[in-house]
Amino acid sequence: MINSYKDLIVSNKAIDLVIEIYNLTSKFPRDEIYGLTSQMRRAAVSIPSNIAEGKMRGYKKECKQFFLTAFGSGGELETQVLISKRLYADISLDFSKTDALLTEIMKMLNTLISNLEPRA
């Protein structure tokens, strides 16, 4: 039984993604600290934060809205990862774990959101 957002697999994977994003962006050029690094970190942190807030609200409609916000932050992060790959193609960065986690989280959020839809 799921009693808390901490029990949600998607929440734990989203936190893993935050750690991965911090590790990845720490290898970006120093002059990027207030640009893409900051944007990616904020988008990544937004995902588990909105999952937690949605789950804590308790009502399906509010929960769905926060899960949609988390999904939107995932889309934002996905775009920023694509930009990073192009900008820093000359730096040896491994995006494979980030890509895998983000894809999995987006699928999980999509399923959770769909399950919160009213039944016809």
What does this structure look like?
By secondary structure, the protein is mainly α. The protein has a single domain, classed as Up-down Bundle (de novo design (two linked rop proteins)). Helix content is 72%, strand content 0%. It has four helices and no strands. It has helices at 9-25, 36-57, 60-87, 96-115. The radius of gyration is 15 Å and the shape is elongated. It starts with 8 loop residues before the first helix and ends in a 5-residue tail after the last helix. The relative contact order is 0.16. The mean pLDDT is 92.
Features:
about 120 residues, mainly alpha, de novo design (two linked rop proteins), 4 helices, about 70% helix, elongated
What are the SSEs and their pairings?
Elements: H1 9-25, H2 36-57, H3 60-87, H4 96-115
Summarize this entry quickly.
With 120 residues, this protein is mostly helical. The chain is built from four helices and no strands.
Q: Please report the first level of CATH classification, the CATH class.
A: Mainly Alpha
Shape: elongated
C-alpha end-to-end distance: 26 Å
CATH topology: de novo design (two linked rop proteins)
Helical region count?
4
CATH architectural name: Up-down Bundle
Helical content stands at: over 70%
> What is the beta-strand fraction?
under 5%
Main sheet?
none
The total beta strand count reads 0
Write down the domain tally. 1
Pattern of helices and strands: HHHH
Taking Cα atoms only, what radius of gyration do you get, to the nearest Å?
Answer: 15 Å
The CATH superfamily is: 23S rRNA-intervening sequence
The chain-level structural class is: mainly alpha
Low-confidence stretches: none
Report mean pLDDT, rounded to a whole number.
92
